[in-house]
Design a protein that fits this description.
Distance between the termini: 23 Å
Order of helices and strands: HHHHH
Radius of gyration: 12 Å
Strand content: under 5%
Mean pLDDT: 92
Length: 86
């Protein structure tokens, strides 16, 4: 059985992968912007703010501070994905 963090990562894997790819390939960022606008409109403002900072080059673990469990888990997975895309 998956633990809660694994469930969160699995549920948001498409977003995590899209952010990691946008972090590695700036040409894909316009598509990412549409995803972020939709996410922000759906109330994911803290998560979107952290993702925008990542896309601007911030890789500091301080990004995790103040996030709820779900957002924290997603941002942590994105940062790990950028460190090791495998």
């Amino acid at each position: 059985m998956l633990d809660r963090r694994q469930q969160i990562v699995q549920a948001h894997s498409a977003l995590i992968l899209a952010v990691v790819q946008a972090g590695q390939n700036p040409a894909s960022r316009p598509d990412m912007e549409n995803i972020l606008k939709t996410s922000a409109a759906n109330g994911w403002t803290d998560l979107v703010a952290a993702i925008r900072r990542i896309l601007q080059g911030n890789r500091d673990s301080a990004l995790l501070q103040g996030l709820d469990e779900e957002d924290h888990t997603i941002i942590d997975a994105i940062l790990k994905g950028l460190q090791n895309p495998a």
